[in-house]
């Protein structure tokens, strides 16, 4: 840890601390963490288990060798992208503010508003190159363990850094692994949360003779041609994969806990059902309305679980999808600001949120921003959980932010001294959420005149920045 005197716009001269920071992962969150931490004056190192940046956007035609993702010793593939995936948000609201995601116009690039996964990966590559981030990333290096070092005090009685020990392993050849231990002042966890499958529980499934997989391991429709497929879960992946399969399969059943209404544009062989309640040895599956179908395949589109197996045990719990104890979706209460999590919230626009949360972390580590006391953070958590309970929000939606996301971003802007988000971002998020639900077949390619006008103005403005 080093201490610098740096100018602070609002408060004049102030001591700013430069810390050594470990970033786990070089997906979108890890990349922006490197940029924001470095700009705040910290020394950064990212460990990335894969050989490339991009995280989930680095498409991998390979899959886990356990299609349900249960076996702990399975060969694991990080990305959950399927070959045909296009974004479910328009590019202008996916974009980092510091590097607009506007069409490049270059040959071989995908300039569509809702682009392919390859284009998002290309954008992240451009971003990393533009901010010269590669030199801070150790590729092919997996973080195995993160633990607190015993606190040391100096002669003046204050706690000395570093606080964290990070054990990594690097593949020196396909069979030999070299382990390394490094000490850091702080750790920023950017390991993503779309890789460890969560499965539906179905009575009788053990003796059901069909094939099962999780959407994490779905890539293309070819292997399911002519079959009857039941998908469980109708969020973005369930909806998209069911439509793709309907073009190749004999019948497709998309099941969900509830349906608000029947979306338009549903192909005749795509049927909407309530959840699967029971599986039978004759191959049939029963739905909550009592109806049954004989199916060949179940695809669990049931989401993912948070996974921090590398963290010293007892630091956080993840029971029922609640990462606890975490202050304002970012800081671990007890070690804040030196342990933080980027990207816990879902149903938000992730990249802008990563940008603001990593800025907040960087400022809290340097001392430019100040967190409340530990007791106050615990109190905040208690109040937050009580509010969720009073509002009837299930524990598993602790990090769901479809209705609260933009208020959260506004708070982050305030805390970090960032100019407030333009209102068009929230408007577009709402407009396209509505269109995604009501026009699932073509919301990515067709929109009304007012949204087209907005697109032209926004892209024009972003290009000028
Ligand atoms: P990731 O991209 O998962 O990156 C985490 C990185 O950490 C990976 O590179 C991984 O290899 C590395 N890592 C993990 N553990 C370790 C370890 N122990 N040691 C070293 N490295 C490690 N968002 C949108 O904005 N628009 C969309 O349209 C959209 N569509 C999506 C579709 C799908 C199918 C999925 C799964 C997600 C989608 N998202 C979308 C959300 C997407 O996850 C975020 O946009 C974002 O890219 C997540 O970035 P991340 O860095 O948090 O995680």
Beta-strand percent range: 15-25%
N-to-C CA distance:
35 Å
Low-confidence stretches: 5-12
Biggest β-sheet, characterized?
Answer: 5 strands, parallel
Beta strand count:
22
CA-atom Rg in angstroms: 23 Å
Can you list the ligands bound to this structure? flavin-adenine dinucleotide
In spatial order, strands of the major sheet run 5-4-3-11-22
Q: What topology emerges from the helices and strands here?
A:
Blueprint: E1 2-8, E2 12-18, E3 20-24, H1 28-39, E4 43-47, H2 91-94, H3 117-130, E5 137-138, E6 141-148, E7 152-153, E8 159-160, E9 164-171, E10 177-184, E11 186-189, E12 211-214, E13 228-232, H4 236-246, E14 251-256, E15 270-274, E16 276-279, E17 284-287, E18 292-294, E19 297-300, E20 326-327, E21 331-332, E22 339-341, H5 350-366, H6 374-390, H7 405-416, H8 423-438, H9 449-464
Parallel strand pairs: 3-4, 3-11, 4-5, 11-22, 12-19, 13-14, 13-19, 14-15
Antiparallel strand pairs: 1-2, 6-9, 7-8, 9-10, 16-17, 17-18, 20-21
The structure holds flavin-adenine dinucleotide.
């Amino acid at each position: 840890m080093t201490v610098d005197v740096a100018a602070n716009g609002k408060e004049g001269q102030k001591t700013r601390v430069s810390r050594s920071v470990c970033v786990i992962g070089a997906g979108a969150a890890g990349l922006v963490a490197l940029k924001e931490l470095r700009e705040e004056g910290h020394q950064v190192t990212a460990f990335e288990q894969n050989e490339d940046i991009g995280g989930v956007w680095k498409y991998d035609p390979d899959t886990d060798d356990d299609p349900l993702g249960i076996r702990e010793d399975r060969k694991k593939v990080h990305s959950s992208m399927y070959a045909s995936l296009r974004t479910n948000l328009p590019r202008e609201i996916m974009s980092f503010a510091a590097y607009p995601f506007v069409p490049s116009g270059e040959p071989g690039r995908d300039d569509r508003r809702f682009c392919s996964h390859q284009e998002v990966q290309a954008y992240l590559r451009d971003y990393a190159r533009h901010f010269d981030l590669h030199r801070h990333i150790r590729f092919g290096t997996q973080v195995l363990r993160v633990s607190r070092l015993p606190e040391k005090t100096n002669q003046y009685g204050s706690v000395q850094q570093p606080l964290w020990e990070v054990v990594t392993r690097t593949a020196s050849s396909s069979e030999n692994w070299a382990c390394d231990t490094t000490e850091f002042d702080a750790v920023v966890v950017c390991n993503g949360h779309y890789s460890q499958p969560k499965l539906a529980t179905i009575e009788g499934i053990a003796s059901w003779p069909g094939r099962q997989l999780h959407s994490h391991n779905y890539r293309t429709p070819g292997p399911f041609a002519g079959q009857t497929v039941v998908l469980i879960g109708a969020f973005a992946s369930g909806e998209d994969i069911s439509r793709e399969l309907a073009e190749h399969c004999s019948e497709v059943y998309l099941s969900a806990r509830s349906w608000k209404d029947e979306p338009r544009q549903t192909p005749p062989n795509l049927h909407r059902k309530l959840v699967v309640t029971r599986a039978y040895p004759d191959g049939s599956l029963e739905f909550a309305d009592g109806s049954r179908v004989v199916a060949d395949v179940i695809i669990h589109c049931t989401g993912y679980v948070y996974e921090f197996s590398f963290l010293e045990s007892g630091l956080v719990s993840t029971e029922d999808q609640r990462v606890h104890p975490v202050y304002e979706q970012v800081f671990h209460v007890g070690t804040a600001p030196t342990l933080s999590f980027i990207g816990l919230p879902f149903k938000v626009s992730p990249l802008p949120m990563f940008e603001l949360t990593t800025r907040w972390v960087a400022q809290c580590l340097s001392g430019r921003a100040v967190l409340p006391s530990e007791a106050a953070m615990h109190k905040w958590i208690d109040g937050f959980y009580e509010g969720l309970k009073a509002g009837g929000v299930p524990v598993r939606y602790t990090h769901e932010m479809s209705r609260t996301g933009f208020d959260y971003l506004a708070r982050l802007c305030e805390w970090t001294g960032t100019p407030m988000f333009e209102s068009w971002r929230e408007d577009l998020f709402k407009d396209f959420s509505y269109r995604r639900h009501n026009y699932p077949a073509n919301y990515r390619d067709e929109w009304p005149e007012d949204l087209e006008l907005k697109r032209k103005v926004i892209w024009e403005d972003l290009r000028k920045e």
